[in-house]
Predict the 3D structure of the following.
Amino acid sequence: MTGPQPESAWDYPRPPAVVPSDERVRVVHAGAVVADSTRALRLLETAHAPAYYVPLADVRRDLLRPSRTRTRCEFKGTAHYVDLLVPGAPAVSDAGWWYPDPTAGYRELADTICFYPQRVDRCEVAGEAVTPLPSAFYGDWPTSRVAPPYKGAPGTEWW
């Protein structure tokens, strides 16, 4: 008997879809639980592993400091970044991002934040550690439930 088949990132839509998730999502860094939620939103986009956006109410906001970094997404609008400041650990610049005023099709992302798995010690989905991408740009959360290939490896930026 086999388990469920992995999802294909190539079956995800473009423009991206936002889907509620009741999976437990956690972000841990330097021994501190930075985020812990069963109310995250999955952002699903063609050729990307899902990205998990955690409600700010489920995030240790006392560990975050606004960054000056801004980027623009053609779909979601302007992203603002945050640094992560866990006492006793070096600061993590641009550890996560959020959309304070997302475009009309992505209003549900307001008051949520997504963390880069490659910039924190551990991100988990339903108890499984996320495999951080080698890319410094993509903040997707690959797990065994999503079949590769997907963006994030060198040379995939222009797929």
User: Anything to note?
Assistant: Residues 63 and 85 are 5 Å apart (CA to CA). The chain has one domain: 9-144. The domain at 9-144 is CATH 2.170.150.40 (Metal Binding Protein, Guanine Nucleotide Exchange Factor; Chain A).
